[in-house]
Amino acid sequence: MKKRIKLNIPLCAIILSLSGCQSQDQNQSVVTSPTHEHKHEQAQSKPGDRKGHVMDEVVPRDVIPKAPILNLEEALASFEIHPDFELETIAHDPLIFDPLVIQYDAAGRIWALEMTTYMPNTQADGEMKHESQIIVLTDTDKDGKMDDRQVIIGNILLPRALAFIQGGILWADHTKLYFSKVTEQNGKFKLEKTEVVDPTYAKGGNIEHKTNSLLFNLDNWYYNAKSAKRYRPYPLDAELPKDAKEIYRNEHWKMALASTEYRGQWGLTKDDYGRLYFNDNWTPIKTTSFLPNVANRNPKHKFPPEILQQALGTNTIYPIRVTPGINRGYQEGNYREGYKLKYHTAACGPVIYRGNQFPEKYYGIGLVQEPAANLIKATKITEQNGVVSGQDLFNEQEILASTDERFRPVNAYNSPDGTITIVDFYHGILQHRTFLTSYLAEQIKMRDLERSKHIGRLYRLKYKNAPLPKVDYLNDLSATELVPFLTHNNGWHRDMAQQLLVMKQDKSAIAELKKLSLNTTNPLAQIKALWTLEGLGIVDFELIKQVSTSANSKVKRSLYRLVELLPTNGQIKTWVQTQVATVNSETAPILSLAAGTHQVWPALSSLINQFGINDFTFAALASHENDYLQNQAEHISAQAKAKITAVANYVKANDNKLALTTAQRESVNRGKALYNGEAACFGCHGANGEGNTMIPPLNNSEWVVGSEKRLAAILLHGFSGPIEVNGKTFTSPMTMPGLAQNPAMTDEHLADISSYIRHAWDNNAKPVKAKTFKKLRAATQTQSKPYTVETIKNIK
């Protein structure tokens, strides 16, 4: 039997996902939840009051299992795990509850963020209370399980990021980034002070589209998901890079802020070579295949989404539980046989396995959490010529899945013992209130998912047929004692050793680091040693030359990025030119960057002639196209010259914008505020309207700057199916719903947003008036389905 449910189609991922994107938060300035589900149908604050479209319950009620709160033994019994692995509990309530983010410190203790106020019920009553905290868990009896809890910082509002730094910790709440000075004595910690580092760290957006992560990367910068910012502490007397500015200082260090490529939604991880891996809620793992801070160099050239957001593997999933508890569970296309979710809808918390407890065949796999389907997906990641790709690790099976609807994995981490630590938020309600459809509200009521205790679990995922390795901790080691750990076979040890060495700023380790960087038998250690030296302020050109004589491709890619940091001189230019003869398809794009930085134009020409012109060429030119052409036009092909000339002649649309009246300007500004704030349209379409591999761009889109009536019709009644934008077809399994039934979205609001996207970026179309929406709303009131490419033709 199918029950009819009334659903209010809301203020969704506002504009023109055309084939689909997330809905956005209207009025919450809170945190990015890791429990982000792919949402279109936003609802009003009171699910029981919603009116509008009528949707079916696809899943028969008699096949839906109950969802009681399970004790630890019952929860462990609910898992189906790949035969090679097993699961153990290392911490659970009341020792830890509502865990969101963890970090292992150098002594193996777990620092954790507890988000204790997230969605206690469908009304989110009390969510904005300052009741979350940062805690430390310790294994005092050394049995592999945590048994002691200490609250370090209490009374926090919805925390979202945590990292270690010299003198204490960096952490973020729903808006700001803080430094807390923490001291230790006899195994206990004392909070000395807390200061604001960046007051706008996670400003704006909504609960599912806010900055998070704080990942310390190979290049000694902290990176974030859902952000174009990066941070780095420098010694107080250090000179900052030209592209960075100081935003804070204390007695230990000063903080630099710089831009980077915008990436990700919830969670961030890295591989051995400093490549960052991220996701959005329907695409489990994405990457760029190269160290960051390349694609943002040239304002006249944008890297395409397929390079900036390489999707690895598939987004198919295989739950072992019937899964009606999703926001659009009334759509039959979401389910495979047995009423189980087909595709990711809440992918988050990725990790690249870099441990020493799993066998070699599993090294480098990607694990992604899927809390909406109560599982963790594994992706096999491979590489060819420096470019990574992925495929499902197992055939129609997940590495781990549960029949417990309250199992909500939100993050995972490499651990000191070489295993993976899984963070289980263990919560009934996954979907945030602002996006909650009446369909899902009914599902929550049906299984009493509002009923919530403060529960939380940390699990150890380990290989079944291998013992846990003996763990050496690094907390009491000197700088020179830390250097050998850069060669450790566990990625956690290598990363922690690098970070500790950089934090200590102890120059006594320099000689050993240089020696290690010349050890060609261990390329990973060479790379770690070279970047650790950079973290100590040492980029030695003579050392780079020595290493380059026998380096493999991975090491050379780091060498070319490091040499960019040096001031230009004749020796460097000569060396860059000589490297052209040694490159291959993996190293050539990165050498292009070094050639551009030091303006070794003949080297860049040789690379263009040998490997063709590409996105890295334009990043290397970085607005020096005319200088390059004046020197090298006769040394490259006519086709390459034409492409470079086109970029050189690029003129920002802002230089030729339509003149706006005061009223139009105000409308555009209101629309911009909606796009980047309450509506958070940037979450799907990007801050610059660039879209991604699945969602069409708004910038330079004929659907945006063309017929204003057609755009208005899509906003009012939605869009479904494939669509072509600028000659490229975008296909998404998601449907953009219409906003006509949402009383919170007035004609004025729609007009403001439309006016903004038609005027922003490179777009230059005239604003839209509210009366356009008013007239079209009346004329199309019988439209009951989203438009398609064919049916939208009726709108003239």
UniProtKB/TrEMBL annotation:
Residues 35-53 have a biased composition (Basic and acidic residues). The keyword Metal-binding applies. Residues 666-761 form the Cytochrome c domain. SUPFAM superfamilies: Cytochrome c. Gene3D superfamilies: Cytochrome c-like domain (1.10.760.10), TolB, C-terminal domain (2.120.10.30). Coiled coil: none annotated. PROSITE patterns: CYTC (PS51007), PROKAR_LIPOPROTEIN (PS51257). Residues 1-23 form the signal peptide. InterPro entries: 6-blade_b-propeller_TolB-like, Cyt_c-like_dom, Cyt_c-like_dom_sf, DUF7133, Membrane-bound_put_N. Residues 27-53 are annotated as: Disordered. Keywords: Heme, Iron, Metal-binding, Signal. It holds the Pfam family DUF7133. The keyword Methyltransferase does not apply. PANTHER family: LARGE, MULTIFUNCTIONAL SECRETED PROTEIN, LARGE, MULTIFUNCTIONAL SECRETED PROTEIN-RELATED. This is C-type cytochrome.
